[in-house]
Amino acid sequence: MLVVGAGPAGSAAARTLASAGIDVLLADQHVFPRDKVCGDGLIPDAHHAMKKLGVLDEVMARSQRAGFVGCIGPLGRRIDVPGSLAVLPRRELDDILCRHGLRAGARMLAPARFEAPIEENGVVVGARLVVEHKEQHDVRCRWLVLATGAVPQALIAAGMCERRTPSGIALRGYLHHPGMAGRLRTLDVVWHPRLAPGYGWIFPAPGGLFNLGVGVAQSHTISADGRGAMRDMNLRKVFAAFTKLHKPARELVEGGTWWADGAPSAEPVLKGAPLRCSLAGARWSRPGLLVAGEAAGSTYAFTGEGIGKAMETGIHAAEAILAAHDDATVRADYESRLEALRPRFAMYEKANRVNAHPWLVDILIWSAQRSPRRLARMAGVLDETHVPTDAVTMRGVLRAIFIRQ
Fold first, then answer.
1. Strand 257-260 relative to strand 168-176: parallel, antiparallel, unpaired?
2. Which domain holds residue 255?
3. Average pLDDT over residues 149-172
4. Is the model more confident about 22 or about 303?
């Protein structure tokens, strides 16, 4: 088997396959460890996937644990939603996941960039890779798992891309400020009209490091042919607004040290990345090929969280391959597994309207502050034990205002 992309989805697929005795080649365009633009938050779905992969203990031993997500509205109202949470920079997390895949028996090829699938009679039977940035290398395989992330070039080359533009964009930087480590212990998400249609975040990482960033939903227009253009917005200006309007963010920037690639930086270092959300924008399978992770749209639209679902899709791809021998059964099994995830993605897609109308956050926070049951349901959403049907519809808002539950 060939798995292209050694992030959470690809490494999860490689480990699952290799643990079952399958010969797996794991290819990535970067040599690990490498940086990856992300909020770095590990919510409960990531914990469940890591436990299944057998990496949870090692990851948690190196992570900054947290017990709450802090939701902060435009009026300064705040509600802390309990959950099993952690933060670990993707440079470390992805390296752990990749190494566990190799320990299980997978082989690594890097740097190796996916150029095109190799096909015979309409079936993918391998891939053409560019190794060391110069040599073409053809790899034959029974199945190709494409886990190449949000950048669409690999999807386009494989004939799997249905939408070239991303669902959203994010920008983040790391700041080292040990003096604030005792004060900022929750994963804080901030909504404000000056950040709409998006949000800002501060996530505490180990050793007094903080992941500070902003995300914007529905950042691009989309045309009928899947192409589009970025809307009139400047993410750096959104980031600057966040650091001015939210006091802890301002204190981090004014008193902290910028950090990049595991070391202090004399200059601010902000990195951006596209997001592919809601299981949309790509075909999930074709004969001989499965698409997993953010390439398949495994990121949640509302929050931008995607690590856990990326791992889940990688595990599902591997388990579908292991469960059947014929192509049609594997593809049907895999696609049914992703379809089963749709209700949660649909709920987060519906919640996206909060990013455009941040006043809704204040209403929901006010409601949760006066209703323990509503707070419990918010915790259930985070823990994936509760899927609300109207939390962010007008009906849900009216219920929050007039009905105490």
1. antiparallel
2. 168-273
3. 95
4. 22
Which segment, 83-87, 131-135, 354-358, is predicted with the most confidence on average? 83-87
User: CA-CA distances (angstroms) from residue 351 to 74, 105, 198, 303, 354?
Assistant: 17, 41, 12, 9, 6
Share of the chain above pLDDT 70, in %: 92
pLDDT of residue 107: 98
Rounded to the nearest 10 degrees, the angle between the axes of helix 359-370 and helix 372-383 is 120
The residue out of 273, 308, 335 marking a domain boundary is 273
Calpha distance 289→281 (Å, rounded): 16
CB 277 within 8 A of CB 167: yes
Q: Which position has the token pair 């899927």?
A: 387
CATH number, domain of 178, equals: 3.30.9
User: Can you tell me the distance from the alpha carbon of 155 to that of 162, in angstroms, rounded to the nearest whole number?
Assistant: 9
Same domain flag for 268 and 291: no
**Overall pTM surpassing 0.90 (yes/no):** yes
- How does DSSP classify residue 161? B
Residue 74 lies in a domain: no
Question: Quick one: pLDDT at residue 217?
Answer: 78
- How is residue 23 written in tokens? 């010969």
d(CA 23, CA 94) in angstroms, rounded, equals 21
Q: Within this chain, do residues 203 and 106 fall inside the same structural domain, yes or no? A: no
Do 318 and 290 share a domain, yes or no? yes
Q: What is the mean pLDDT of the chain?
A: 91
